[in-house]
Here is the input.
Amino acid sequence: MSTEAEFLQQVRDGLSHLYDYAYLESHPLTARFWPASEPHGPHRAQRLHRLLIESIEELHPPAAPVKGASRAEYYFLLVYRYIEEWPPADIMQKLGYSRRQFFRQQQKAVEMLAGLLSEKAPAPRPLPVEAENELDDELERFRTRHRAVDPREIVQGVLEMVGRLADHHGVTLVCDLPDRLPVIYGSRTLLRQVFLNSLSQLITQPRSQRIRLRLFQARQRVGAELTAEFAPGRPGPADQGQTLEPEPIRHLVEMMHGHWQAFELNETGCTYRFEFPAEAERWLLVVEDNEGVIQAFRRYLVGYDYQVISATTGAEAMRLAREMRPSVITLDVMMPGQDGWEILNGLKRDLATQPIPVIICSVLEDPELARSLGAAAYLRKPVGQTDLLTLLDRLSGSS
Here is the structure.
């Protein structure tokens, strides 16, 4: 087992050779995270490359500015220095660092990343189809990190990132992007992994010579099609003892509330096809007489795909529910005039508001009564951001 100092040096060295797949193939981190008993090959270097990039992405704080928070600065410094390969002088100018400060911050950033990676060692096993539950555990924390994500920006960044891998394998990348696309609401990290994993799988197939990535809008959805054209005469994946594994990618797509449409493999090529809903911002009706709670919910949802409206009385709640048809309603029990149980009963008796999921938020613990009256879920006060976002993510599709 490597010492802490040795591991830190290995992480630093791996970052410095992030795009050198031949070097990463025999790197100590590769051997540590994936046992030497596994066959060596470009896919091992590819895994280490992805692990380093994904770990950097995990450091990205929600809605973080470039300046003003140390964790955010570490994230941007790592992105600029190792992923985008900016010269140190450009990073110093961008972040306002002196030379001494730059090297000090870079050291702290790499230490933070090494700490994150050390928690993951030994690395997770490769994810076969039957390991979907393990993938769920690994990605569950991303479910509530919903943001408005620009698919064009994601694809352009991913293409730059895999450019060297494509060059290494002699594969030509072609991208067909419309001038404008609607945003997708979801995890930026998950969406990046969908395209990174799809492209890296197709690029490393022995017969791949040209890959076309096409994004398009179809009604209220953003579609994606990735097609690898195979060179004639070369051994195919089956001849090399290799198989394409679309299931992990499919699972990532579904984690983003997307729809997997097709996986096609024949003698001439391979195609992945999937789509994501281009959702409009959704409305959350907060029925609450405590202004502090309303403001807390607004803070929780800054940058997420929800607009918050509020009501402080039962009559106002019923009116807004009928007029706005919110995706979800949160309802306090201790309300003046009509209490929350009466309001819930009214919402469920009205045909116009009956389908809207209602979350009871109360200091009183009576989830059975809440369910019996038609509530979709119950949260005990004080309500935390993660609990609220998790429920909204689960319930908003049912309204």
About this structure: The CA atoms of residues 149 and 188 lie 6 Å apart. The radius of gyration is 24 Å. The longest strand covers residues 208-218.
